[in-house]
User: Fold this.
Amino acid sequence: MLPRQVVKWILVFLVISPSLFPVSVSEADSSYWSAKKRHMKKKVHDMFYHAYENYLTHAFPHDELKPLSKSFTDSLSELGNLKLEHLPQHYNGSALTLIESMSSLVIMGNNTEFERAVLWLSENLNFDVDARINLFECNIRVLGGLVSAHILATDSANRLVQGSYKNQLLTLAEDLGRRFLPAFDTPTGLPYAWINLKYGVMENETTETSTSGCGSLILEMGALSRLTGDPIYESAALRALRRLWSMRSSLNLLGTTLDVTTGEWIEYSSGIGAGVDSFYEYLFKAHILFGKEDFWRMFHSAYLAVQKYFRHGPWYHEADMRNGKATYWQLTSLQAFWPGLQVLVGDIAAANSSHREFVHVWKKFGVLPERYLLDHLMLHPTEKYYPLRPELAESTFYLYQATKVGESIVNSLNSYTKVDGGFASIRDVTTMQLEDHQHSFFLAETCKYLYLLFDDSFLVDRNYVFTTEGHPLPVLSSWHDRLPEAYIPRNWTFLPSEKQARRASAMTLQVCPATSLDCRHRCQQVKSACHIPDARSDHRTCIYVTDELSNEAQQSEGRKLSPIIHYEGLKVSGKKKNLLRLESAPHNNEEIRVMEDSGIHHNSSWTAHQ
Ligand code: DMJ
Assistant:
């Protein structure tokens, strides 16, 4: 035992020591964090270059890398194309991943490689190709990539070798923008979802599109107009956006899919995920980029409606735009961008609570599964994949700097998805089986946001708005009609009581169900979000809906019964008060919620969206 006096002096020393050596303690602290940040920055830097160099070696100038087979895919013509129809025979790619990587190269400080990319694209990129592309995807990835890279190429901080850049990327962007215009030639001004780059809108083209397909064009097309001085692009995008907004319900809600010729809704249910997500994002970001109060007013009403009708504690379900009633209770990986948007608008507490839930899910599975059925506490039987999506990293970037969350995302990506030939998507989060696809958004967004978490020096002197594909556009007063007024009200979202906020995450209670794939006759095939045709039969999954039984039953019973849905080997039947019963093992007698009027659990859930 130490003598009492000694113990006393030791205690006194421990109490006063921080004030005796304040500098050394905080220095130690900050040098620990600086070292940690440098270490993490290097890790993300290495991830990006592993993905990038493998793309250059095995796939360039094609669109995307297949990291397992070390080959390529010309996926620009497949993005968003569920049925893989009208695939071009002679399309050889547009170096999509290179276009998407350019802004990340600048953010990581590699001006030499950026210049090489600019020059290669200037000399080789050609949009006069017979390829039917998805307007939304081509806009956010290609037009956004080019416009952002043009701005970065003309920024004195990223000066290219004197005289080497003569606005070639802007010329290419303008060429692409012109090819988009025929899509807007509809009675409503709402654009077709698909356009052939060489020939315009194809005969018998589908008139169905999504809310994000019409409402997420304004940043890129607006920027193109500001840069070229030609208002045509911005006007087309603005007209479509205004028309879309005019279709909102009295609750300020919109649906998910619509017809561009009639301007009528097809799918009345919507949420903040697939088919709608970037519509909200663009209303707000357009206000920041162009300063128009109009965008702010639209966003303000739309945001409040989302918080009122879709939100359930930290989660967001879907609801019918006509009456605000909940339809599908699903968590999707795409929704994880929402907390990031909430940070931008100043609704920090709400952002924090849902970000925390998404992080729980990430930790539970190691990555974010594409879709989780909140009312059944189970993974969606077919959408168990994780295609290297950026949304959680994006929200994490807006909420934090250098945090444990960022570190754990980086570590999971390295341990589960890194392969010799790049980074592979995950086909099934329960088995971590890989899929042969490295999406271009992994370089454009996932790596970029992770890098910015640990080194944001790119953002020091200037404000940027990141497009939905992560391409930075500078906030310039010259682009503003007038500078935005202060727009951040307090307490956007009514916060649930402490008790509710702390309740255990639904995900922590879930059991991962085993499901067997059983594609039977009359399957309507539904592709995974990866859109890459390959030889594997299990690449596609199926759902088919038959109304035969209901017709028979109708005749015998003289009344209308609900359709039967065969769903990945599950039989779903017997609509009762808006609920269907799952009849086959392992989900015996579970009920799923369905839309009140259709009785069929489908459509937006099956709309793939990159
Ligand atoms: C990206 O292409 C964009 O972020 C888009 O808005 C939604 N999905 C993907 C990545 O998940």
